[in-house]
Design goal:
There is one protein chain. With about 230 residues, the chain is of the alpha/beta class. It is about 50% helix and about 10% strand. It has a domain of about 150 residues: 3-Layer(aba) Sandwich (Rossmann fold), CATH 3.40.50.720. The strands form two sheets. The chain has a four-stranded parallel β-sheet with strand order 3-4-5-6, with helices on both faces. Helix 2 packs parallel to helix 3 and helix 3 runs parallel beside helix 4. It is globular. The protein starts with a strand and ends in a 9-residue tail after the last strand.
């Protein structure tokens, strides 16, 4: 597992070890840096071996309307949310194809189905990841590798808390009132938990999901209104 913050990464890896007893290789990495991704993959291959399952999950870019984002902001978002997926996939796919088995699961957003106002960076670049994943899924489907996307809706993460704080600052509401407003837009009338989201990711990474590829599945409490 990797993240930019060494302290947060160390804390999380210790929690995983304490709760599961499994070995965790935690490597501080900036996924916007292609050379850092290469170093990450080299270390994993040396210390763990071939990678059979890849979960790509980088933080979302900042909110705001189109005119608030500079060219540099767009470039940063593309590197963070698209190039990171490309570079990680490029690093793990050859060994998956050689072994005839692999799982790639990209964490995107329900914004791919229904763009969210004020998130133009995320709306645009998550859609690019979806197009890439669907195309790649078709290319490798006959060789034992599946490629899928999971689209979180409102899930109680640090990212959602940050967005709620931003919305509260732009209105006369408190953060709790923002969360309450979010919940009212969800048919289940509540915000999801990371554990509920992780259940689907775990399934798609398993042997039982061997005939599922090229799909984007929402975990959103029913928010997405589309039939497909």
């Amino acid at each position: 597992m990797c993240a930019r913050s060494a302290d947060a990464l160390d804390k999380t890896s210790q929690e995983i070890v304490a709760n599961t007893g499994v070995k965790v290789l935690a490597v501080p990495t900036d996924l916007t840096d292609s050379s850092a991704v290469e170093s990450l993959l080299d270390r994993v291959h040396k210390e763990v071996g071939n990678i059979d399952i890849l979960i790509t999950n980088t933080g979302g870019p900042p909110p705001g309307p189109f005119e608030s984002h500079s060219s540099d902001a767009w470039a940063t978002a593309v590197h963070q949310n698209l190039y990171s997926v490309l570079n990680l996939t490029r690093g793990v796919l050859p060994s998956m194809l050689d072994s005839g088995w692999g799982r790639i699961v990209n964490i995107t957003s329900v914004a791919v189905k229904e763009p969210v106002d004020g998130l133009i960076l995320s709306n645009s670049i998550r859609a690019a990841v979806t197009g890439f994943a669907k195309t790649l899924a078709n290319e490798v489907a006959g060789r034992g590798v599946t490629v899928n996307n999971v689209m979180p809706g409102f899930t109680m993460t640090d990212r959602l808390k940050s967005l709620a704080k931003s919305r509260a600052e732009q209105s006369d509401n408190t953060v709790d009132e923002v969360f309450s407003g979010m919940a009212q837009t969800i048919p289940m009338q509540r915000i999801g938990t990371p554990r509920e989201f992780a259940a689907l990711v775990g399934f798609l990474a398993s042997e039982r999901a061997s005939y599922i590829t090229g799909v984007s599945i929402p975990v959103d409490g029913g928010v997405v209104k589309g039939l497909i």
